[in-house]
């Protein structure tokens, strides 16, 4: 586990510090309160890094959570504290949330939680799952899910749009020769 690893140094330490700086205790507390409202656990909903890690590291609470969304999402929850069993729980949770509609880019890797590498991404995943909760009749957290806004255009409207020149192509207003960068090279 994380406490037996050597500390990171150099650029790796800087990268880890940058990842750790994104973590927000208030959002983590809100997330743990939301989990408690659905599952009845954990008792301590403090948002500090160590508490979040202790509550979620074995993956059993995460598996219980997704089973509240859809019964049987995780068929076998390992109660063992052996490393590979806990990591199986976390992996089963990740597979289940993808099926529940959490985008892959908002999930985390098993090692992020198990080795306490990136708890910020764990909270992001849980917040994303929290947005989906309303679709399953459960209390939700975070911003409301966006609704689809499909637009239908006629062929005439599509052809008219092809004649419009986008400003993304640039402009030379004010200069006849286009945009010039810096001074000319003197020879």
CATH superfamily: Calponin-like domain
Can you summarize the main beta sheet?
A: none
Number of strands: 0
Average pLDDT number: 86
Q: What is the element string, with H for helices and E for strands?
A: HHHHHHHH
Overall 3D form? extended
* Uncertain stretches of 5 or more adjacent residues: none
Any idea what the CATH architecture is? Orthogonal Bundle
Keywords:
single chain; 187 residues; mainly alpha; Actin-binding Protein, T-fimbrin, domain 1; 8 helices; 47% helix; extended; Calponin-like; CH_dom_sf; actin filament binding
Structure description:
With 187 residues, the chain is mostly helical. The chain has a single domain (2-136), classed as Calponin-like domain (Actin-binding Protein, T-fimbrin, domain 1, Orthogonal Bundle). Helices cover 47% and strands 0% of the residues. The chain is built from eight helices and no strands. The protein has helices at residues 11-21, 25-39, 49-56, 60-69, 83-99, 110-114, 119-132, 155-162. α4 runs parallel beside α5. The radius of gyration is 24 Å and the shape is extended. It starts with 10 loop residues before the first helix and ends in a 25-residue tail after the last helix. The mean pLDDT is 86.
